[in-house]
């Protein structure tokens, strides 16, 4: 839709180029055939200007012509409303199919939707523009469209007869022709290039195919109208039901119960199912029908596995136990919309506050409040890494709720239930995100391990790798650093590690007791490298600041010109100083062989996850059997870092010494 294309317009040409490089000779043939490329495919978001004449005519008629009755209101307005409803129908269907907490047990293809497929299907709504233009031509060509009643029951019956008698067999015959080598390579291969069916895949096809679909849709509407039985309800109803069934077939979620076909066996020839159509995409030589398998039966192209696979999938027992779980939480109201089941395209990009989110904010508030009252921890997304299933579960709480005086027990209950559930189903490692491992909340996960010593699932806070990522950013020639949040879990580990490297650490803390406790943990010969300071003025000559606690622009002013701010504070500090540089939050890029990853983790770029997430991944890949909770073991920092690099994870910070070395 409009906001989908707008948010990717700067990446549009890059994704097209990537698509070219990855589809080979078939793509070259495809581009050379007529009626393949969309005329407006290079316009990006500007393609929606093509709706401009329709809007202009509606405005003109509204202010300069007599008002018409509702059924005979501007045909342009009807077309705009119909396009909007069709687009909304596809988006809602796609949202439902991506609600893994509802659909995970009835997914047909278990593979995830990756970024490549999302980019390829970005302009799925091109067909709406095409069919709006065709609709406007029909209005001028056929005068009977100018005075249609609201409803004519005879028209509905006539359209149904024409659909079954003409549209269904016509589509079946043409579809089979499109699977011939020549037409398939030149046209239909684009639609079949999506490895995982999604509702938006239904719109991902060439101009020629959508012209054929326009004819298939138009026959019942034109036929009934030419007989004098046309109506507004017929046009709206037939087209929306047509799109509904197309989305159903491409949803990758089996929602049709197999008991329907057991009770009424003839129904399996009258309506297809998502499983039925998915077999067509995997087999390609069977199940060609539009919506009625009857024509596959008559044409001897019905896949014999259709009904048994449908029964197996619809039983809801097809889910797999994950090997690794990252237990996340909602950051804030706005970012709560940055999920695949809201806007798939938006969630495939790093989160940024966008203007189009503003109208949805009240609804998001209601949803978040409802989750606070009734929701449990739910499954959000997944991907595969070296045959292992990795899932992200979400605690239904926003960041601000973690700091409410009465919220702690409830949040810990959610986290504990998630850990126990993971343990029960056989998850090997569960990693706690950000506030879910807050020291004051549960001691970095130690509360749960102490309470349930028999846990088989390994609980990991991931802070060891977080510390390693931050330490990797610090140049080897640095001799002095200024550390805020110095007595926190991460601050303590960073200070103890750096002092062993003979780096002087100015630890900002007002608590002499906490400072001395940390200092005593350091080897005697290195304790002098740890220095307590109580004011920011103490760092006015230090150009390396490690920020673990939020600092204001005023406090940043104490840093000398040329200072680099490394940080592990959430949210990141404001980049106030133009004469200084600011590091990124600790994060790592997943290995290149990750599969089915199609959503970004908050503000991280594609393929990048927070270091605590990556720490859990390393724990899982290494097969370590210990829990990583409570205080960070400084001796394990280098061990975890080397393990991460060994498994192909890479730092993303511009200041990384690994990146600087080109490794």
- Calculate the mean pLDDT score and round it: 91
Spans where pLDDT lies below 50 across 5 or more residues: 1-30
Spatial ordering of strands, largest sheet: 5-4-1-3-2-13
Class computed from helices, strands and strand pairing: alpha/beta
Distance between the termini: 40 Å
The description of the largest β-sheet is:
6 strands, mixed
Q: Which value, in Å, is the CA radius of gyration?
A: 29 Å
Number of continuous helical runs: 27
Helix content: 40-55%
Proportion of β residues?
5-15%
Form type: elongated
Number of strands: 15
Give the topology, please.
Layout: H1 2-8, H2 12-32, H3 52-64, H4 75-97, H5 100-103, H6 115-120, H7 126-141, H8 153-178, H9 181-192, H10 207-226, H11 232-249, H12 258-263, H13 274-283, H14 294-298, H15 306-314, E1 324-329, H16 344-347, H17 361-374, E2 378-385, E3 388-395, H18 408-425, E4 429-432, H19 439-442, H20 446-451, E5 458-460, H21 463-473, E6 480-484, H22 489-500, E7 504-508, H23 512-521, E8 530-533, E9 544-547, H24 553-556, E10 564-567, E11 581-582, E12 587-589, E13 594-595, E14 608-610, H25 611-622, H26 637-646, E15 650-651, H27 657-661
Parallel strand pairs: 1-3, 1-4, 4-5, 6-7, 6-9, 7-8, 9-10, 10-11
Antiparallel strand pairs: 2-3, 2-13, 12-14, 12-15
């Amino acid at each position: 839709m409009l906001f989908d294309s707008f948010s990717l317009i700067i990446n549009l040409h890059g994704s097209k180029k990537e698509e070219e490089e990855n589809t080979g000779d078939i793509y070259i043939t495809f581009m050379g055939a007529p009626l393949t490329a969309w005329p407006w495919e290079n316009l990006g978001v500007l393609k929606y200007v093509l709706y401009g004449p329709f809007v202009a005519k509606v405005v003109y008629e509204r202010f300069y012509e007599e008002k018409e009755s509702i059924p005979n209101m501007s045909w342009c307005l009807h077309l705009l409303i119909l396009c909007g409803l069709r687009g909304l129908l596809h988006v809602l269907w796609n949202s439902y199919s991506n609600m893994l907490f509802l659909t995970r047990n009835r997914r047909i293809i278990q593979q995830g939707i990756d970024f490549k497929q999302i980019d390829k299907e970005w302009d799925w709504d091109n067909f709406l523009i095409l069919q709006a233009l065709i609709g406007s031509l029909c209005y001028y060509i056929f005068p009977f469209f100018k005075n249609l009643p609201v409803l004519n029951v005879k028209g509905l019956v006539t359209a149904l007869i024409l659909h079954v008698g003409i549209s269904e067999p016509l589509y079946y015959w043409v579809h089979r022709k499109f699977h011939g080598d020549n037409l398939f390579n030149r046209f239909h291969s684009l639609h079949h290039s999506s490895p995982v069916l999604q509702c938006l895949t239904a719109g991902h096809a060439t101009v020629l195919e959508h012209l054929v679909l326009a004819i298939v849709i138009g026959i019942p509407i034109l036929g009934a109208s030419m007989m004098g039985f046309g109506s507004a309800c017929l046009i709206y109803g037939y087209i929306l039901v047509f799109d509904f069934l197309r989305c159903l077939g491409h949803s990758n979620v089996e929602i049709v119960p197999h008991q329907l076909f057991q009770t009424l066996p003839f129904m399996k020839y009258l309506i297809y199912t998502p499983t039925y159509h998915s077999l067509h995409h995997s087999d390609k030589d069977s199940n060609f029908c539009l919506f009625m398998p009857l024509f596959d039966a008559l044409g001897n192209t019905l896949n014999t596995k259709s009904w048994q696979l449908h029964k197996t999938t619809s039983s809801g027992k097809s889910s797999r136990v994950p090997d690794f779980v990252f237990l996340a939480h909602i950051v804030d109201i706005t970012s709560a919309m940055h999920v695949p089941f809201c806007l798939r395209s938006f969630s495939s990009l790093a989160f940024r506050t966008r203007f189009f989110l503003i109208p949805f904010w009240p609804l998001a508030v209601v949803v978040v409040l409802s989750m606070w009252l009734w929701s449990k921890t739910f499954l959000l997304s997944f991907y595969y890494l070296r045959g292992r299933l990795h899932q992200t579960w979400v605690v239904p709480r926003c960041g601000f709720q973690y700091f409410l005086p009465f919220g702690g027990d409830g949040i810990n209950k959610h986290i504990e239930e998630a850990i126990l559930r993971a343990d029960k189903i056989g998850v090997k490692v569960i990693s706690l995100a950000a506030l879910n491992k807050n020291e004051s909340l549960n001691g970095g996960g130690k509360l749960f391990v102490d309470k349930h010593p028999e846990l088989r699932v390994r609980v990991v806070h991931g802070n060891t790798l977080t510390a390693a990522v931050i330490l990797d950013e610090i140049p080897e020639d640095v001799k002095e650093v200024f550390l805020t949040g110095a007595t926190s879990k991460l601050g303590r580990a960073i200070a103890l590690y750096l002092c062993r490297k003979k780096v002087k650490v100015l630890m900002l803390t007002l608590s002499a007791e906490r400072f001395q406790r940390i200092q005593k943990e350091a080897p005697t010969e290195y304790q002098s490298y740890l220095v307590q300071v109580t004011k920011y003025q103490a760092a006015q000559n230090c150009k390396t600041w490690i920020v673990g606690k939020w600092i204001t622009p005023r406090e940043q002013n104490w840093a000398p010109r040329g200072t680099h701010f490394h940080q592990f504070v959430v949210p990141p500090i404001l980049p106030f100083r133009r004469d200084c540089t600011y590091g990124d939050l600790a994060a790592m890029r997943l290995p290149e062989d990750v599969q089915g990853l199609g959503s970004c983790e908050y503000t991280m770029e594609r393929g990048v996850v927070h270091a605590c997430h990556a720490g859990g991944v390393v724990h899982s890949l290494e097969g370590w059997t210990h829990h990583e909770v409570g205080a960070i073991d400084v001796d394990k920092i280098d061990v975890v870092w080397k393990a991460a690099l060994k498994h192909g994870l890479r730092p993303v910070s511009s200041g990384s010494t690994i990146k600087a070395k080109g490794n």
